[in-house]
Amino acid sequence: MLPDKRKHSKEKSRLHPRSKHRERYDFKPLIASHPDLERYVKLNIYNDESIDFFDPEAVKSLNTALLKHYYDIEFWDIPKNYLCPPIPGRADYIHHIADVLSSKNFGKIPIGEQIRCLDIGVGANCVYPIIGNKEYRWSFVGCDIDPISIESAKQIVDKNDSLKGEIELRLQTNPKDVFFGIIQKEELFDLTICNPPFHSSQDEAQASTLRKLSNLTHEKITEPNLNFGGQNTELWCEGGEEKFIKNMIRESKFFSNSCFWFSTLISKQSNLKNAYKALEKAEAIEVKTIPMGQGNKTSRILAWTFLSQEQQENWKATNWKEKF
Predict the structure, then answer these.
(1) Is 272 part of any domain?
(2) pLDDT tens digit string along 54-65?
(3) Which of 191-195, 235-239, 268-272, 317-321 has the lowest mean pLDDT?
(4) How far apart are the C-alpha atoms of 37 and 50, rounded to whole Å?
């Protein structure tokens, strides 16, 4: 006999108010958009329709359905063992960073292809550019140090007519650089976004994966498993998130007039203190910290600008003209 059905809140209240994903997954329209999903949808022990989030193919199929249903994506795929990101969390970043822009525009979000966004570490999935383009019609440049990720993202763009000409992909040939080699001379961006590698070593990344798997299965998992996906460059780098962000802030100073708002996710609250110190050293004019939450996970967006108030007004008058 199944346990009593749990009482769920109708909305995921921690997600952004504009998110398309605040309500619980409604699998009927998702399956209509992507019939392959149907074979993964089962009743769980609480008699709720769900998928096995331990199964990478089920998670990939759900992502495909979400992108087709909510963002009109005709084709989406990633290479085996590459990161399969949670769509609601990615959408939240886009909506929150749109609010950062609107805070400088009398509460109105600038929309249109003239708004240019740079995605540092676009990954094989290309999800941030997809959502940003579909929600606000922004144009994107996505860069990555992994050639396979760039080729996968290019395939996604090439196989979706609505994305052609809206998303450009660039390979970062020096893995130690963030903006150098990517932002070209006299090139301007309204935003940069980034989901940095969280971990400082492969062992640390593996330990984190084992914890996630143990939480999902309610059993202690001791053997590594590729179900969560993610290549080394996606999951870890020397010095981890803290060093990556510190380097990003240092480089951003050299491009202080090339971008209105720089931003990055910060997964670890403890990394904020040193990030603030780096921003103070770099002489950032304005800094914003935006909390985000999805389920039991809490993170935050750190955003900063080097533009003075006068420069900000000039930027809007010059670059945001006729964008609404």
Answers:
(1) yes
(2) 899 999 999 999
(3) 235-239
(4) 11
**Does the residue 155 lie in any domain?**
yes
Q: What is the pTM of this model?
A: 0.87
Q: Which residues form the domain of 183?
A: 85-319
* CA–CA dist 69, 40 (Å, integer): 17
**Number of domains comprising the chain:** 1
Look up the CATH number of the domain holding residue 186: 3.40.50.150
Does residue 209 belong to any structural domain of this protein? yes
- 71 occurs within a structural domain: no
In 10 A of CB 323, how many CB atoms?
18
Are the beta carbons of 66 and 90 closer than 8 angstroms?
A: no
Give 132-159 pLDDT, tens digit per residue: 999 999 999 999 999 999 999 999 999 9
Dihedral sign, Cα of residue 322, residue 170, residue 204, residue 231 = positive
